[in-house]
Design goal:
The chain is built from 24 helices and 19 strands. The strands form 5 sheets. It has a 7-stranded mixed β-barrel with strand order 7-8-14-17-16-15-13. Strands 3-2-1-4-5-6 form a 6-stranded mixed beta sheet. Strands 9-10 form a two-stranded antiparallel sheet. Strand 11 and strand 12 form a beta hairpin.
C-alpha cells in the first residue's frame, strides 16, 4: 500500500537575533531559509502529496487563533496547510522578512499544534510533524512545558529542532534554551531524544539531494497455471523498473509564457512544385520494404496485433537454475510474485511451489502476458525465501497448546516469507552472436605469474565491501541502490534555478553530484600501490603509423610520365594510394553486394574506419555467397576472403581475420561445402602466419595443417556435374 500523506508545519524564528550576524557571515535567518527552500524543493519535484504550512514567530504583527491580549503575541500563521508549490518557494525567498520582536518558541509550538489539530480534522494523515528553526535567542518560559509534552504524546505529533549551532560564545539565553530543548526532547524520546536536533549545516547536507518520486505500487492479480488442472491465485508488483523523467515539457509563447497562446497545426502536402495540400483522411501509413513502400493502415495494424484471451502467468516447464545465464536477463522491469492476499489455499500451494523450486535448485520457465493486448514474453521465475522473518506471537494464542502454536507459526513463516522473482528472457532475435579469437591460443596474450599476482592485488584493494576484524561485520562502501540518478538531480537543480532566474545562465553542476559516481576515497587510497605495480608490469608504448603524404601533383600528374597509356587511368592498390577514378566512384558508405571486395577495401582505408564493423559486413556477404552454392558465387566469396586477408595484414588486424577463417572452416564442414574448401586449398588461402605479420602467433606448419580437411572414413564422394580443375571453372565464368 502507498503511504498516506503527512502534515508538516515549518515553524521559523524571524526575531532580531536570527537576522544579526558577524561581518562577512550569513545570518541564521538566511541559513534557515536555505534549509526550508531545499526541503520544499524536494517535496515539489518528488510530486509529494504531503501538505506544508508555515508559522513565523518573532514577527512585528500577530495572526493566529490562540492570540489574546498578552498571550501568543508576535506569532503569525503565514501559510495554511496545502500542497507545496513554486509560490511557496518564492514566498520563502522573498516574502519572509526579518522581524524586530522576540517570541517564546514554546508558544510557537503550541500554535503549530493547534493548527495541525484544526486543519487535519476529518482528513487522513499518516503523520503530523513540526520542524522548528530557531537560534534559541529569545526568552523562554517553562510553565507549560509539561502540558506541551503531554499533548505531543497524546496527539502523536513529532517534533524536530534545527539551529545554527555549533557556534562559539553562546549567550546565557541560548544556553537556557538548550537546556529546555534537552528536557523536551529527552522526555519525548528517552533513548534518542537529541537525535532529532540538527544544525543548519547538517540539514543542508541531508537535503542536498532531491527526493525520488514516490510511486504507488500497482498490484497485478492473475492466475499462476501449471497445466490445465492446477491454478494458484497470485498478485505481482514491479520490484525494479527504470525510472524516467515525467514528460511535462510543453510549447508556450516566449513572451506571455502561456500555452493557450500557441496553436499547433499539421498540414500534409504532396512533394510537387505546388505543394498540393492533402487531407489527413486521404493519407495512409506505409512500411518501407526494401525500395518499396507497403501500405499498412491502422486497421491492418490492429488486426496484426497478437491477442490472447486474457492476461496469463503460465508455467511452461522447469529448468535448472544454472541453465539460466545471468547475461540472458533482459526487459525493463523485475516482478515480485506473491500468493493472493486473504487466500489461505493459494498461500499454502504457492509456498509449497516456491520451497520445492528452492530445494531442487530449479526455476519455472513462464509465459507472461500483462493483458490480452500485450505481446507474450518468456521469462524465468526464481524462488526467493527471506532468511529471517519476525511474526508477532501476541495475537491468537489464547487457548492453544504450545505445540499447536509452534506448528501454526512455522506454517505462517513458511507461507508469508516466500515469493517468485520474474525476469524476462530473450527470444532468438534478441541474442547477439560475436566471434572473438581465443586468448589461450595466442602465446603473446599469456600473462606472467607476476602480472597475474599484480592484477589479483588490484582487485583485492578495490573491494567495495569492508570486512571488520571479527569477520562478521560487513560494510558496503558503494551502494548503487542509495545513489540518486545524477540526471534527475541536475535537471531539478536547473528547473528550480530557471523558475526564479529566467534570464540568468544555468548554474554549474553541484560538487556533490560530481562526487556521487566517483571511486570511494578509501578505495582510491588503497589501490594506489597495486596500480603503480600494474603500470610497471604492463608498459604501454605508442605505435605511430607512418602515412605517405599525397600532394596535388601526385593526384593530377600526367600518367604518360610513367610510360603508361595516357588514355587509361592508373589504379593503384598500394596503401595510401589515391586517384581520380576513386573520386568518380562516389562516396562508399557500406559494403554492397555488387562489388563487396572493392567496397571493403575503400571503407577500411577511410579515416576513423571501424575495421570490425566493416569486416562484419563483408563476412555477411561471404555467408550469402556460400548459401547459394554455385561456382560463380564461390569465386566471389574467394575474392572477398583474399581482399580481407590482404587488408588485415596491412592494417595489423590479424586476429580478426584468423578468427573469421577458423569459424568459416567449421561452417564449411557443417554444411558440406567440400568443393568450396577445395578451391581454398588450391589457392593456398590459409591463416596469417607470424612470418607475414608480427601480431600473429600461427606458425607456417600450423597454417598448412589448417588447410587440410578432416579425413572421413568410408565416404564415397558424389560425382560432380562440373568437371575439370579451378582453371576450367574460371574459363567457364
Amino acid at each position: 500500500m502507498a503511504r498516506s500523506k503527512v502534515a508538516i508545519v515549518l515553524c521559523l524564528d524571524v526575531g532580531f537575533t536570527m537576522s544579526s550576524s558577524a561581518p562577512d557571515e550569513e545570518s541564521s535567518l538566511e541559513q534557515a531559509k536555505k534549509v526550508m527552500t531545499k526541503f520544499v524543493q524536494r517535496q515539489v519535484f518528488a510530486e509529494s502529496k504531503d501538505e506544508v504550512a508555515v508559522v513565523l514567530f518573532g514577527t512585528d504583527g500577530t495572526r493566529n487563533d490562540l492570540a489574546s491580549r498578552d498571550q501568543y503575541q508576535n506569532i503569525t500563521v503565514h501559510r495554511s496547510l496545502m500542497l507545496p508549490d513554486f509560490d511557496l518557494l518564492e514566498d520563502i525567498q522573498d516574502g519572509i522578512k526579518p522581524g524586530s520582536e522576540q517570541a517564546d518558541f514554546l508558544d510557537a509550538i503550541i500554535v503549530c499544534m493547534d493548527l495541525l489539530q484544526k486543519q487535519t480534522v476529518g482528513k487522513k494523515y499518516e503523520k503530523r510533524h513540526i520542524e522548528l528553526f530557531t537560534d534559541l535567542g529569545s526568552t523562554v518560559s517553562e510553565d507549560q512545558l509539561e502540558i506541551i509534552i503531554a499533548n505531543l504524546k497524546k496527539t502523536g505529533i513529532s517534533l524536530q529542532f534545527l539551529n545554527p549551532f555549533p557556534r562559539k560564545g553562546l549567550t546565557e539565553q541560548q544556553k537556557e534554551g538548550i537546556d529546555v530543548v534537552r528536557k523536551l526532547m529527552h522526555t519525548l524520546d528517552e533513548e534518542g531524544g537529541l537525535e532529532e536536533v540538527y544544525t543548519f549545516r547538517e540539514s543542508l547536507e541531508r537535503l542536498s539531494m532531491f527526493k525520488k518520486i514516490e510511486r504507488r505500487p500497482m498490484a497485478w492479480p492473475c492466475q499462476l497455471t501449471i497445466g490445465s488442472n492446477l491454478s494458484i491465485r497470485i498478485v505481482a508488483y514491479k520490484s525494479v523498473t527504470e525510472e524516467k523523467v515525467k514528460k511535462v515539457w510543453t510549447t508556450v509563447d516566449a513572451k506571455t509564457l502561456r500555452k493557450d497562446d500557441v496553436q499547433k497545426e499539421t498540414v500534409y502536402c504532396l512533394n510537387d512544385d505546388d505543394e498540393t495540400e492533402v487531407q489527413k483522411d486521404d493519407t495512409i501509413q506505409g512500411f518501407r520494404y526494401g525500395s518499396d513502400i507497403v501500405p499498412f493502415s491502422k486497421e491492418d495494424e490492429e488486426q496484426m496485433k497478437y491477442k490472447t484471451e486474457a492476461k496469463c502467468f503460465s508455467v511452461l516447464g522447469f529448468s535448472r537454475s544454472s541453465q539460466i545465464q545471468r547475461h540472458c536477463y533482459m526487459g525493463n522491469h523485475v516482478l515480485k510474485v506473491f500468493a493472493a492476499k486473504d487466500d489461505e489455499n493459494a498461500a499454502v500451494a504457492f509456498s509449497a511451489l516456491v520451497h520445492a523450486l528452492d530445494e531442487l535448485k530449479v526455476v519455472a520457465v513462464v509465459r507472461y502476458a500483462y493483458d490480452r493486448r500485450s505481446n507474450p514474453q518468456i521469462g524465468a521465475a526464481f524462488p526467493y525465501i527471506k532468511d529471517s522473518y519476525e511474526i508477532s506471537k501476541s495475537a491468537g494464542t489464547k487457548g492453544r497448546s504450545s505445540q499447536h502454536l509452534k506448528l501454526l507459526f512455522k506454517l505462517i513463516c513458511r507461507v508469508w516469507k516466500t515469493c517468485l522473482i520474474y525476469v524476462q528472457l530473450p527470444y532468438m532475435e534478441d541474442l547477439r552472436q560475436y566471434i572473438f579469437s581465443s586468448l589461450k591460443n595466442n602465446k603473446k596474450c599469456i600473462p606472467t605469474a607476476d602480472q597475474l599476482s599484480a592484477v589479483d592485488s588490484l582487485i583485492d584493494s578495490m573491494n567495495l565491501v569492508y570486512e571488520a576484524d571479527d569477520g562478521e561485520t560487513f560494510e558496503d562502501l558503494f551502494k548503487p541502490s542509495k545513489i540518486p540518478n545524477p540526471h534527475f538531480q541536475r535537471l531539478y537543480q536547473c528547473l528550480q534555478h530557471k523558475a526564479f532566474h529566467p534570464n540568468e545562465p544555468l548554474p554549474p553542476i553541484e560538487e556533490h553530484l560530481l562526487e556521487m559516481l566517483e571511486m570511494p576515497s578509501v578505495v582510491k587510497e588503497r589501490c594506489q600501490g597495486p596500480l603503480e605495480k600494474i603500470k610497471a608490469l604492463f608498459p604501454l608504448k605508442e605505435v605511430v603509423k607512418k602515412k605517405d603524404k599525397t600532394t596535388a601533383q601526385d593526384i593530377f600528374k600526367d600518367s604518360s610520365e610513367d610510360g603508361l597509356n595516357p588514355k587509361k587511368p592508373r589504379i593503384e592498390d598500394e596503401e595510401g594510394s589515391f586517384s581520380i577514378m576513386k573520386l568518380a566512384e562516389g562516396n562508399v558508405t557500406s559494403v554492397g553486394s555488387v562489388n563487396p571486395a572493392e567496397d571493403f577495401r575503400i571503407l577500411v582505408r577511410q579515416k576513423n574506419a571501424d575495421f570490425k564493423d566493416v569486416s562484419q559486413q563483408l563476412i555477411n556477404h561471404i555467408d550469402q555467397f556460400l548459401e547459394n552454392k554455385g561456382s560463380q558465387y564461390y569465386m566471389k566469396g574467394i575474392n572477398c576472403i583474399r581482399v580481407f586477408r590482404e587488408e588485415a595484414v596491412k592494417l595489423s588486424k590479424v586476429q580478426c581475420f584468423n578468427a573469421f577463417l577458423q569459424a568459416l572452416k567449421s561452417k564449411v564442414e557443417d554444411k558440406a561445402l567440400a568443393d568450396f574448401w577445395e578451391i581454398m586449398m588450391q589457392d593456398r588461402i590459409s591463416l596469417i602466419t607470424e612470418d607475414e605479420a608480427k601480431e600473429s602467433s600461427v606458425t607456417s606448419e600450423e597454417a598448412e595443417k589448417f588447410l587440410a580437411p578432416k579425413e572421413k572414413k568410408n565416404e564415397i564422394l558424389p560425382p560432380t556435374d562440373e568437371g575439370g580443375d579451378v582453371d576450367d571453372l574460371l574459363d567457364m565464368m
